[in-house]
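Record passed on underneath.
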Amino acid sequence: MRYPFLASFAAPARARAELWRTALGVLGIAALYSAGLFVALNALAAVLGDIQFARTLRGMIGGSTPQGLALMLGSFAPMLAAVIFVTGALHGRNWRSLLGRGAGANFLRVAVPLIGLSLLLMPLDLFDPNVGRATPLATVLGWMPLALPLLAVQIGAEELVFRGYLLQQLGARARSPLVWMVLPSALFGALHYAPEDFGANAVWPALWAFAFGCLAADLTARTGNLGAALGLHFATNFAGLFLVGLYGNLDGLSLYTLVINTRDAGALGPYLAQDFLVMGISWLLARLMLRV
């Protein structure tokens, strides 16, 4: 597979693409993100008090309430700030270079149709006996003015790090997709490994995240900007967080939830297969919308 726009997308990183610098950048992003999150949580604890903070933290970790989900999405703000800082301080370039030209237009051209498709297909999920009502529509709509920008923060942070910073830094040194596509996606997948939620099945959601990372990187290299990956990520998370969520897992603002035993491979398998299929279709539709 040839990617004619990869070189132009990675060009801003070429002047300072040494491996030691990239490794230091990754460590810097991780350290600044952890430090920022630590400071924010301690400030919240000081305001709320120990008991209320413990309740808030539980809600945030599980995303099981509207407030908890909002805080979870907002917790990616330090990651966003970290990658912006590292890009400027360590590589001497503006963070907008991580986006590439035309990212905004491509984001809209991908996100809007995919969200529309999710809305059209959602009634089919309601025939599933394992899917039930969750959050009232009025509550979901009331939280949208805050939740949508926070969702943009969450997906923006992840895309700027994995399909922006890492893809550019590695793509500036190597043309092989094994380097700029597979390596960042493997890290992305590993960070989604959650045995506390899925038990022995945790490898499958992690593989899903790895595959998503590869497809998002593919779209980025095909288009020469981050817009399509941002659009795919936004639409995917919009459907999973606000339309039909997984019970007990970031479902605080889900209109409906799927109630299954996620540690049972037989119960989880068909839904994971469906998610892989939807992801592939979404990737193909994104390519169709952009004609790449």
Q: What stands out?
A: The beta strands are 131-133, 244-246, 256-258. The longest strand covers residues 131-133. The first helix runs from residue 6 to 10.
